[in-house]
Amino acid sequence: MATVEFNGESFEIDEDGFLLDYNTYSEVWVDYVKGQEGIEELTDEHWTLVKVLQDYYEKNGIAPMVRVLSKLTKFKLKHIYELFPSGPGKGACKMAGLPKPTGCV
User: Fold this and answer.
1) Residue 93 catalytic?
2) Is-above-0.90 flag for pTM?
3) Of the candidates 29, 38, 70, 87, which lies 20 to 30 Å from 16 by C-alpha distance?
């Protein structure tokens, strides 16, 4: 377990940089991950993905599979990778404050 300090907030993370406690998610966390992912500006599409991931996680306790994420957002997989170059499992789930996905996200 490690701690990340960013803009006056502390976040406990796992060895892969995912939040250990979803309840510590904040916009400061989003800004931190944005920099880590090399995303210059967050668009409405980024926020759509983040919100869909969070809603699904809150209802189901896991991140959705890629096919489900694509269906829920109406974004093609290629576009999801354009928004989050490290992918939906690493970049998008991390930004949404979800734990590291265990399956095929």
Assistant:
1) no
2) yes
3) 70
